[in-house]
């Protein structure tokens, strides 16, 4: 089932992996570059597993239309219902150090289908994006194919998942380099 509402994009697919394993992959920020279907996520800024609502985890990003090319996103966990749902809203650090958020969220809902499979629904919701942000970013900023590719990538990772990602594994070795270290 793939649907697009005016301000919500929803894509779902069956995965040949238990919901618990798929959830573990999603809760590991080190896997997000390999999951991403746009190619914009480069590498984690934080590798601590996602464990609680309110937790922040950062990503080094790249987009050719971003003023700096390379930039950072700081996600705030909004939903964490192991192994059924995980969601976060991307944000950014403002000049005063406070966090700001653009108003869009990513959410994964997992429904077990037996012991060794599950249905994963990925929702990209931009319904709370304020008018000033919409003046310079078109929503959605990617097509349905990118979201479908994200689910395909997640399915592949979950099928072969054996635990926490290692930054030296082949999944992350091919990620485009990003300026995400100090002074970036």
UniProtKB/TrEMBL annotation:
<protein>
    <submittedName>
        <fullName>Polyketide cyclase/dehydrase/lipid transport protein</fullName>
    </submittedName>
</protein>
<dbReference type="InterPro" id="IPR023393">
    <property type="entry name" value="START-like_dom_sf"/>
</dbReference>
<feature type="region of interest" description="Disordered">
    <location>
        <begin position="162"/>
        <end position="184"/>
    </location>
</feature>
<dbReference type="InterPro" id="IPR019587">
    <property type="entry name" value="Polyketide_cyclase/dehydratase"/>
</dbReference>
<feature type="compositionally biased region" description="Basic and acidic residues">
    <location>
        <begin position="164"/>
        <end position="176"/>
    </location>
</feature>
<dbReference type="Pfam" id="PF10604">
    <property type="entry name" value="Polyketide_cyc2"/>
</dbReference>
């Amino acid at each position: 089932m793939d649907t697009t509402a005016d301000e919500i994009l929803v894509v779902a697919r069956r995965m040949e992996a238990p919901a618990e394993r798929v959830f573990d992959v999603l809760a590991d920020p080190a896997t997000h570059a390999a999951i991403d279907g746009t190619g914009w996520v480069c590498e984690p800024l934080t590798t601590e597993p996602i464990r609680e609502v309110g937790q922040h985890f950062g990503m080094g990003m790249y987009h050719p239309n971003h003023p700096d090319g390379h930039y950072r996103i700081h996600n705030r966990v909004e939903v964490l219902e192991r192994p059924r749902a995980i969601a976060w809203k991307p944000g950014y650090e403002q000049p005063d150090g406070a966090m700001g958020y653009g108003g869009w969220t990513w959410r994964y809902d997992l429904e077990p289908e037996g012991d060794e499979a599950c249905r994963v629904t990925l929702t990209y919701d931009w319904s709370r994006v304020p008018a000033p942000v919409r003046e310079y970013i078109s929503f959605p900023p990617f097509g349905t194919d990118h979201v479908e590719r994200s689910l395909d990538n997640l399915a592949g990772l979950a099928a072969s998942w054996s635990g926490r990602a290692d930054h030296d594994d082949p999944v992350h070795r091919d990620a485009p380099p990003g300026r995400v270290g100090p002074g970036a």
